[in-house]
C-alpha cells in the first residue's frame, strides 16, 4: 500500500468528516441550548440537499443553492420550533424527540411526493470539478472546497458564540435559562434562532454533500445515525467534541474503506461502543 | 427526570369507572385473549389480523421498557429482526424443527438484548435513545454485510413452514386461520408473561425507576441491574414477535432491522398508549388498520400516519387507551 493512496484516503476521510462535523454541530447546538434531540435532523439534511438542488437548477448556479437553501431551510426550522416544538417545553424530554421522529416521516414522504422516490444526481459545479496536485498526490478540488467551507463556518460559529453579545446570551441561556428570563432576555426568541441555526447547519451539510453522492429521500436515515454516533463519541452539547469526533469518525470510516470495505459502515458503531464502555458521557461530555 | 412526589388522590367521584377499571385490570389477560380470538373475524383480512398479532406482541414487549421503565429505546427492531433471522436461518439452512427454531430465535434475541442493554443502560436520559438507535444500526449493517447468512439486501427466503405438529395434531400452517390461532398462542404467552412481570415486585421496581430514578436508588434498588433486566425481558418478547413474523411471512426483510422499524414500534406503542396494558396492542391494531386503509388511497400513506403521530404527541401524549382511561373512565 503506497503512501499516496493512504494520504488521499485520509483526505477524503477529512472531507467526509467535515460534513459530519457540520451536521453534528447543528444537532449539538440545538441540544445544548434547548435540550431537544432533533430526530428530524437527518431528514432536514436531506431536505436541505433537495432545496440546494432546486435553487441551483432554478438559478443555474450552485452558489445560490449553497447560499439560499440553508437560509430557507433554517427559516423552515424556526417555523417547526415555533409551531411544533414550543408547546412541548416543560413536558417529558422524550416528547420533542418523538415529535421530530414523526416529523421526519412526514418530511421524507413529502419529498417523495414532490421530487419522486428515485435518487437525483447533484452535479458538481464546473469551477470545482477536477483534481489538484498538492505535491503529495492528486486531490479532488470539490472535497478541498468542502473542508474549506466547513472550516470557515466553524470559525464563524466560534466567533459568533465567543465574541458577540448574542453568543453570550446563547451560552448563558444554555446554562441557566430561568436566570436569563429574570434578567429580561426574551429567551424564547433565542431558542427560535438557535433551532433555526442548527437546522440551517444540517441543510448546509446536505447541500455540501450533494455533489459527493446522489440525492435521495432516504439519505437522511444514515446521516442521522452518523450524527448520533459523532455526538455520542464527542459528548452531546460539546462543540469541540462534535468537531473532533466528526473528523475522527470520517477518517476512521474512509481508512477502513481502504483496508476492509465491508467493515466501513460497521466500524463507527464499534468505535462508539468502545467510547461508551470507557467514557459513557463521551470524550468531551460532562457527567450529568 | 424529576417528577413531583407521588400523591395518591382519594377519588371521591370514582364509583363505577373505578370498579370497571379494576375488573379490567384483574382479568386483563383473559380479556385480551378473548379479544384476540375474535380479531380475525372483525378485520377485513386474515393477513392483517396476523400482522396485528405480531406487532401487538412486539409493542407489548417494547412497552415494558418504554411505558413502564420510562426508557425510550429506538433500537428494538434489532431484537425483532434477530429473532426472525435466527428462526429463518435455523429452519432454512440447518433444517431445525420449527419449535426449536423459535426457541433459538428468542434466545438469540435475548442475548443480543442483554449485550445492547448492558451498553446502553450505562448512559443516561436522552443519550439512551441515541445509543440504542446507533447500536441497532450496527446490527443492521452487520446483516447487510453478511449476505451468505442473511441474504443481504434481498432479505432471507427459503424456509417455508407448511405443516406444524402440535401436541400430536398435524396442522396445515398455510391455512390463514390455522396460522392465526397457532401464532395467537405465542401472543397469549407474551401477554401473560408481561402481566406477570407487571404484577411482580420487579414490576413495581421498574415503575418506581420511571417515576423517580434517584428515589428508587435511595430506596435501595439496584437501578442499573433493574434497567438491564427490563431491557432484556423487553427485547426477548420483541424477539418472540420476530420469530412469529418469520413463521408467518416465510421471509425476513433487511428493513426489519432498520431503525425506522424501531420507530414504527415506538409509534404504535404511543398511539395506543404507553404505560397501559392494552395500549400497545390497540396501537398496533390502529396503526396497521390505518396503513391498510390509507395505502389503498395513496402510496404515500406514511405522510398521513406521520402527521397523525405528530398530532398525538402534541395533543394526546397518553394515546388512545391512556386518554380513554384518564378522560372517560375518571
UniProtKB/TrEMBL annotation, chain A:
Pfam families: BPD_transp_2. GO terms for biological process: amino acid transport. One of its GO terms (cellular component) is plasma membrane. Keywords: Amino-acid transport, Cell membrane, Membrane, Transmembrane, Transmembrane helix, Transport. InterPro entries: ABC_transp_permease, BCAA_transport_permease. It comes from the Bacteria. GO terms for molecular function: transmembrane transporter activity. Its main location: membrane. The chain crosses the membrane at residues 6-29, 36-56, 62-85, 97-115, 135-161, 190-208, 228-251, 258-278. It is a multi-pass membrane protein. It is found in: Cell membrane. The keyword Glycosyltransferase does not apply. PANTHER family: ABC TRANSPORTER ATP-BINDING PROTEIN, BRANCHED-CHAIN AMINO ACID TRANSPORT SYSTEM PERMEASE PROTEIN LIVH. Belongs to the binding-protein-dependent transport system permease family. LivHM subfamily. This is ABC transporter permease. It comes from Tardiphaga robiniae.
TrEMBL record, chain B:
It holds the Pfam family BPD_transp_2. It is a multi-pass membrane protein. It comes from the Bacteria. It is found in: Cell membrane. The keyword Transferase does not apply. Its main location: membrane. The keyword Transferase does not apply. Keywords: Cell membrane, Membrane, Transmembrane, Transmembrane helix. One of its GO terms (molecular function) is branched-chain amino acid transmembrane transporter activity. One of its GO terms (cellular component) is plasma membrane. CDD domains: TM_PBP1_LivM_like. The chain crosses the membrane at residues 65-86, 98-119, 125-144, 180-198, 231-254, 266-289, 301-321. This is ABC transporter permease. It comes from Tardiphaga robiniae. The lineage of its organism: Bacteria, Pseudomonadati, Pseudomonadota, Alphaproteobacteria, Hyphomicrobiales.
Amino acid at each position: 500500500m503506497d503512501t499516496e493512496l493512504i494520504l488521499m484516503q485520509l483526505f477524503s476521510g477529512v472531507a467526509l468528516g467535515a460534513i459530519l462535523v457540520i451536521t453534528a454541530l447543528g444537532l449539538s447546538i440545538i441540544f445544548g441550548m434547548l435540550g431537544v434531540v432533533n430526530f428530524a435532523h437527518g431528514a432536514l439534511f436531506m431536505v436541505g440537499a433537495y432545496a440546494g438542488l432546486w435553487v441551483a437548477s432554478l438559478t443555474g448556479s450552485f452558489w445560490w443553492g449553497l447560499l439560499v437553501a440553508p437560509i430557507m431551510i433554517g427559516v423552515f426550522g424556526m417555523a417547526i420550533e415555533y409551531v411544533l416544538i414550543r408547546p412541548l417545553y416543560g413536558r417529558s424530554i422524550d416528547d420533542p424527540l418523538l415529535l421530530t421522529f414523526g416529523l421526519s416521516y412526514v418530511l421524507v414522504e413529502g419529498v417523495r411526493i414532490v421530487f419522486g422516490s428515485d435518487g437525483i444526481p447533484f452535479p458538481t459545479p464546473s469551477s470545482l470539478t477536477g483534481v489538484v496536485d498538492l505535491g503529495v498526490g492528486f486531490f479532488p478540488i470539490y472535497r478541498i472546497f468542502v473542508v474549506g467551507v466547513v472550516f470557515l463556518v466553524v470559525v464563524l460559529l466560534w466567533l459568533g458564540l465567543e465574541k458577540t453579545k448574542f453568543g453570550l446570551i446563547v451560552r448563558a441561556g444554555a446554562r441557566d435559562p430561568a436566570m436569563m428570563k429574570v434578567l429580561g432576555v426574551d429567551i424564547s426568541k433565542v431558542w427560535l434562532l438557535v433551532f433555526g441555526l442548527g437546522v440551517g447547519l444540517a441543510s448546509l451539510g446536505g447541500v455540501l454533500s450533494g455533489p459527493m453522492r446522489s440525492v435521495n429521500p432516504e439519505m437522511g436515515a444514515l446521516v442521522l445515525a452518523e450524527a448520533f454516533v459523532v455526538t455520542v463519541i464527542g459528548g452531546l452539547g460539546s462543540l469541540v467534541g462534535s468537531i473532533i469526533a466528526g473528523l475522527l469518525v470520517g477518517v476512521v470510516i474512509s481508512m477502513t474503506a481502504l483496508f476492509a470495505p465491508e467493515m466501513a459502515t460497521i466500524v463507527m458503531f464499534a468505535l462508539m461502543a468502545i467510547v461508551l464502555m470507557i467514557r459513557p458521557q463521551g470524550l468531551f461530555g460532562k457527567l450529568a | 427526570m424529576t417528577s413531583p412526589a407521588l400523591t395518591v388522590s382519594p377519588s371521591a367521584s370514582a364509583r363505577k369507572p373505578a370498579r370497571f377499571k379494576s375488573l379490567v385490570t384483574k382479568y386483563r389477560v383473559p380479556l385480551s385473549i378473548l379479544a384476540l380470538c375474535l380479531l380475525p373475524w372483525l378485520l377485513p383480512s386474515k393477513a392483517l389480523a396476523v400482522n396485528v398479532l405480531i406487532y401487538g406482541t412486539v409493542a407489548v414487549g417494547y412497552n415494558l421498557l418504554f411505558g413502564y421503565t420510562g426508557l425510550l429505546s429506538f433500537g428494538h427492531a434489532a431484537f425483532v429482526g434477530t429473532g426472525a433471522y435466527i428462526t429463518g436461518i435455523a429452519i432454512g439452512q440447518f433444517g431445525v424443527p420449527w419449535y426449536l427454531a423459535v426457541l433459538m430465535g428468542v434466545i438469540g434475541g435475548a442475548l443480543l438484548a442483554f449485550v445492547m442493554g448492558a451498553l446502553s443502560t450505562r448512559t443516561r436520559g436522552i443519550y439512551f435513545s441515541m445509543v440504542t438507535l446507533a447500536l441497532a444500526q450496527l446490527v443492521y449493517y452487520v446483516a447487510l454485510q453478511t449476505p451468505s447468512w442473511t441474504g443481504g439486501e434481498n432479505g432471507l427466503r427459503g424456509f417455508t413452514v407448511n405443516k406444524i405438529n402440535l401436541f400430536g395434531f398435524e396442522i396445515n400452517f398455510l391455512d390463514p386461520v390455522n396460522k392465526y390461532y397457532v401464532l395467537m398462542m405465542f401472543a397469549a404467552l407474551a401477554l401473560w408473561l408481561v402481566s406477570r412481570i407487571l404484577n411482580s415486585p420487579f414490576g413495581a421496581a421498574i415503575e418506581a425507576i420511571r417515576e423517580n430514578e434517584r428515589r428508587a436508588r435511595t430506596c435501595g434498588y439496584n437501578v442499573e441491574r433493574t434497567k438491564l433486566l427490563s431491557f432484556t425481558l423487553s427485547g426477548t418478547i420483541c424477539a418472540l414477535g420476530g420469530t412469529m413474523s418469520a413463521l408467518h411471512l416465510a421471509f425476513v426483510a433487511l428493513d426489519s432491522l432498520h431503525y425506522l422499524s424501531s420507530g414504527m414500534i415506538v409509534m404504535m406503542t404511543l398511539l395506543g398508549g404507553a404505560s397501559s396494558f392494552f395500549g400497545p396492542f390497540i396501537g398496533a391494531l390502529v396503526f396497521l388498520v390505518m396503513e391498510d386503509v390509507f395505502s389503498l388511497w395513496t402510496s404515500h400513506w406514511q405522510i398521513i400516519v406521520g402527521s397523525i403521530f405528530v398530532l398525538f404527541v402534541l395533543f394526546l401524549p397518553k394515546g388512545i387507551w391512556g386518554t380513554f382511561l384518564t378522560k372517560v373512565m375518571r
